[in-house]
Design a protein that fits this description.
two-stranded antiparallel ribbon; mainly alpha; 344 residues
């Protein structure tokens, strides 16, 4: 505790002066999304001393406190230790200016030794960090190893993913409720969708390479929807799809196939209506089980409206097929009946 307080004091941050804003009262373990809690305390962590924060020292101390489930400061504080650790790791991962040497490899290893996947994910950042973030949501709820969860979310095809999760769901304890309500992990996924997919406004936000820190909406959408399916008990899948469809309609302002958020609709079409984009697509395959929309149980009318809302946007199809369209080699169209994806 003394190390944490001393580090914040040395950097002259507001948090150590007890100047926690009223917004930090939201940063509690009961928050539906710890990302939102992190955002609430962002301002009070900004160092006023030009030397900045000693991230090596600070993260190591917070990892120990989080591992012991101990508050980071004696007395009254509205900020849980894990939330504070997450926020500091995100600052370190985004290379907030500091005069202190930061040994990221050692700190990441410390996160692994402390089995703190949240901290590791935020420290890594970018696309790899997001994969870890979603893996943490799944492994904290389901009986699945981290490596297997990562494979299911990122490397497996939709059919392989379905088979893997089918085995995991056999041991998924669940009390059937009268009405479906998203879990805490699913609310976190909704936050990620709204932040990185539904808010897309620029064409250049699509198709960034994986080795960059930039999160493109298609990548985020695919991870989030797979994670949503993983956290949904099979008996709730139908009600879950209806709830999620209603939420998406509201956020997209989607009515009768029109929406003001056309790029967001294009990103969702890429994620939900096209099979995995790794390798070559077999456009002659009419197996609808190979697309996420069918796996999640979305209504075909909703998907048709979603496709219509982004009609004409090249961002709604995979990039290598877009190149063929632009050169006149193929012509593609979405249809509401029959297979959701047709090529001619």
């Amino acid at each position: 505790r003394e190390i944490v307080s001393g580090t914040f004091c040395n950097a002259e941050t507001e948090i150590v002066m007890g100047l926690e804003s009223s917004n930090t009262s939201k940063a509690s373990d009961q928050s539906q999304c710890y990302r939102e809690s992190m955002r609430c305390i962002k301002d009070v962590l900004i160092p006023k001393n030009k030397c900045g924060l000693d991230f090596d020292l600070l993260i190591a101390a917070l990892l120990i406190l989080a591992y012991r489930h101990t508050v980071w400061r004696e007395g009254t504080t509205t900020i849980p230790t894990q939330i504070l650790l997450n926020a500091v790791c995100e600052m370190a991962g985004t290379r907030v200016e500091s005069k202190f040497i930061f040994d990221s490899a050692t700190v990441l290893r410390q996160c692994a030794l402390a089995e703190n996947v949240q901290a590791a994910a935020l420290l890594v950042g970018g696309k790899n960090g997001l994969i870890l973030e979603c893996v943490d949501l799944i492994t904290s709820k389901l009986d699945i190893e981290i490596k297997d969860a990562e494979t299911a979310l990122f490397a497996a095809t939709v059919n392989e993913f379905k088979d893997m999760m089918g085995v995991v769901h056999e041991n998924f304890e669940h009390d059937k409720e009268s009405e479906f309500a998203p879990s805490g992990g699913q609310f976190h996924l909704l936050w990620l969708l709204e932040e990185h997919v539904l808010s897309v406004v620029k064409y250049g936000e699509f198709d960034s390479p994986r080795n960059t820190e930039k999160l493109d909406p298609v990548f985020v959408g695919r991870l989030c929807f797979r994670s949503w399916y993983s956290l949904t008990h099979p008996t709730d899948l139908s009600e879950s799809a209806k709830w999620l469809e209603s939420w998406l309609r509201t956020k997209l302002e989607l009515t009768d196939g029109t929406s003001s958020k056309r790029l967001a609709c294009a990103a969702l079409v890429r994620v939900l209506l096209w099979v995995d984009e790794a390798g070559q697509l077999d456009l002659g395959d009419s197996d609808e089980d190979s697309i996420l929309a069918t796996l999640l149980g979305f209504d075909s009318r909703f998907m048709a409206e979603l496709a219509h809302a982004c009609c004409g946007l090249i961002q709604s199809i995979p990039p290598h097929l877009a190149d063929e369209v632009m050169t006149g080699m193929n012509h593609f169209s979405f249809e509401a009946s029959g297979s959701l994806l047709n090529a001619s």
